[in-house]
Every structure is written in C-alpha cells, then in structure tokens.
Amino acid sequence: MTSKVSKHHKTVAKEKTFQELLGAIARIQEGTSQLLPPGTRLTVSTLAKEAGINRATIYKYHPDIIARIELLNKFDSKQQLKEKRSELSKARDSAKVYRKLLGQAQKDKEHLVRINYQLTHQLEELERRLGQRDEVIAALKRQLNS
C-alpha cells in the first residue's frame, strides 16, 4: 500500500513540476519573468532558475521539456532568420528608392548649377550695363553743367 501511495505522490509531484516548467517557459518567452530580464534566451539553466527547480531534475525527469526547449529555440531561430531576411529585403528596397532619389537630386542640383551660372552671367551683364548707364548719365550731367 505504501508503494502505491509513494508512486502516486511521485506522479503528482512530477506533474506539478511539469506544469511549473510550462509556466516558466511561458513567462520567459513572454518576458514577464520576475527573476530574469526580458529577452532572456530559453535554456535549461534559465528555465530551472525561473521555475525554482534544479537543472538535474529537468534532465532526469523531464526530457520532454528539453526537447520542447530545443524545438522552441529552433523555431525562434527560424522565425528570427525569417524576420531578419524580411528586414533586409525592406532595407534593400529602401536603399533602391534612396538611390533613385539621390540620382534625381543630383540631376536637380546640376540643373540648378546651370541656372545659377546663367543668372550669374546675366547679373554681371546687367551690372555692366548699369555701369555704362551711370557713365552716360555722369557724362550728360557734365555737359549740362558746362
């Protein structure tokens, strides 16, 4: 009778520990752990710390949890890779747009440089003509005064 009670107690304790480990996995993944900073990578060590359980207990009695950790990390890695590839693709698309904008801006700048050159020469011509006008006016004033 004692062995039945003992087995039952072990089964209940193992199930309780299993549930605690699942809860700890969820808290680590959600970043809501009280013991670990958000973004902590899920490992057997971090799980044991979060659940308040010895690592050896996980290795000895919960190999399914270890498999789950490996699977989650593999999925997380694949998901992160997918996200990074998506970010890279967006960055490349943005770079392409920026290169086009840069090319257009350079063309606009060249056009404005040409306009500035023309306006500078027109201004010099007008200033030269004003100088001539001032000389004519000064000459006419001298004639009137003589």
Query: What is the CATH first-level class name of the domain at 1-61?
Result: Mainly Alpha
Helix content: over 70%
User: Helical region count?
Assistant: 4
N- to C-terminal distance: 144 Å
Order of helices and strands: HHHH
Strand percent estimate: under 5%
Poorly predicted sequence stretches spanning 5 or more consecutive residues: none
- Total strands: the figure is 0
Shape: rod-shaped
Describe this structure in words.
The protein is mainly alpha-helical. It has a domain at 1-61: Arc Repressor Mutant, subunit A (Orthogonal Bundle). Helix content is 87%, strand content 0%. The protein has helices at 2-30, 44-51, 55-61, 63-145. Helix 1 packs across helix 2 (44-51). The chain is rod-shaped and about 140 Å long. The N and C termini lie far apart (144 Å).
Task: List its traits.
146 residues, Arc Repressor Mutant, subunit A, mainly alpha, 87% helix
SSE blueprint and pairings:
Blueprint: H1 2-30, H2 44-51, H3 55-61, H4 63-145
Helix pairs in contact: 1-2
In a few lines, what is going on in this structure?
The protein is mainly alpha-helical. The chain contains four helices and no strands.
